[in-house]
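Late entry, evening session. Most of the bench is empty. Finally got around to the prediction I had been postponing all week. Sequence below, unchanged from the version circulated by S.P.
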Amino acid sequence: MTFATGTPVNDANPLPIVVTSDGSRVDYSAAATIANGQSLSAPIDLANHALASIEFPSAWTAAVITFQVSSDGVTYRDLWDENGEVSFQAAANRAIRLASWGWFAIRYLKIRSGTSAAPVAQAADRVVNLYSAYRNN
């Protein structure tokens, strides 16, 4: 899964893009799936976008979310900061707003249900929606 990089939406670039009426902001979205019985999503290429928010589906097996990150899309590491493993309290029908500046240095990302020490398998395929935005002017 890859975020668009400013190119128009077409068959080769099917990701939804919304441009405000004055053209000042462009919003990008992508979906990540955590498969039934799994705890990690497929890799997401942030393509130089800063992640701004995450939305969870109406069904979610109770678990926090944590992340694995990579600079090359091959080797992934658990994401920690000065306070410990980076986590958010996910829940069904919940949206989480992120401080975008903290995501600029991350190129590839996997979303984990649970923590690195205690992953939580989802009870069905779960599609998590990811959003990024930037100012055009």
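Two things to note before I forget:
Residues 69 and 75 are 8 Å apart (CA to CA).
Confidence is low (pLDDT under 50) at residues 4-15.
Will write this up properly tomorrow.
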